[in-house]
Structure formats: C-alpha cells, structure tokens
Amino acid sequence: MKEPGLDNRWRDEDGEIRKKRNDTHAGTLSKDYPEFDQFRVDKKLGNIKRDLGLPPDASLKEVRRKLR
Predict the structure, then answer these.
(1) What Cα–Cα distance (Å) separates residue 41 from each residue in 1, 4, 16, 34?
(2) Contact between 55 and 63 (Cβ < 8 Å)
(3) 29 torsion bin: left (phi>0), alpha (psi -120 to 50), beta (else)
(4) Fewer Cβ close by (within 10 Å): the C or N end of the chain?
(5) What is the pLDDT of residues 8-37, one digit of tens each?
C-alpha cells in the first residue's frame, strides 16, 4: 500500500479498495460520512444494512445511497 485512494481509503495489493467490515461502528463511519450521524455511535454497519433491507455484502456506497 502506497497512498490513500478515494475518500482516504487504502487499496489492497491487488488494487481493490478495502471494504468496510460489517462490525464497523457508526461512530467511526460518521467521522468521514455525515450520513451516519443519525445512528448511535455503537451501532454496527451490519445492523444498519439489515435495518435498511440491504444484504450483508452491500457496499458502503449502497448504504450511503439509501440514507440520502
């Protein structure tokens, strides 16, 4: 890994941007994405996806699109 990519996310060795894990807390996400300010800081991304009716493997982009 050399430099941060899109939205200050790092790319893996194969060039793919790392996906956010489902156990990432909303408080961590809200530092970069204001859409997550509406959730408790300890709510996990996987639970947010479930509440929005998204599959567990949905991308962060899909989640953000649903929240707008």
Answers:
(1) 29, 25, 28, 12
(2) no
(3) alpha
(4) C
(5) 665 555 555 567 889 999 999 999 899 999
| Residue for token pair 């990432």 | 24
Residues belonging to the chain:
68
- Please give the Cα distance from 55 to 30 (Å, whole number): 21
Query: What does residue 44 show for φ and ψ, rounded to 5 degrees?
Result: -90, 150
pTM, whole model, 2 decimals? 0.74
CB atoms inside a 10 Å sphere around CB 30: 15
Q: Is the backbone of residue 8 left (phi > 0), alpha (psi -120 to 50) or beta? A: left
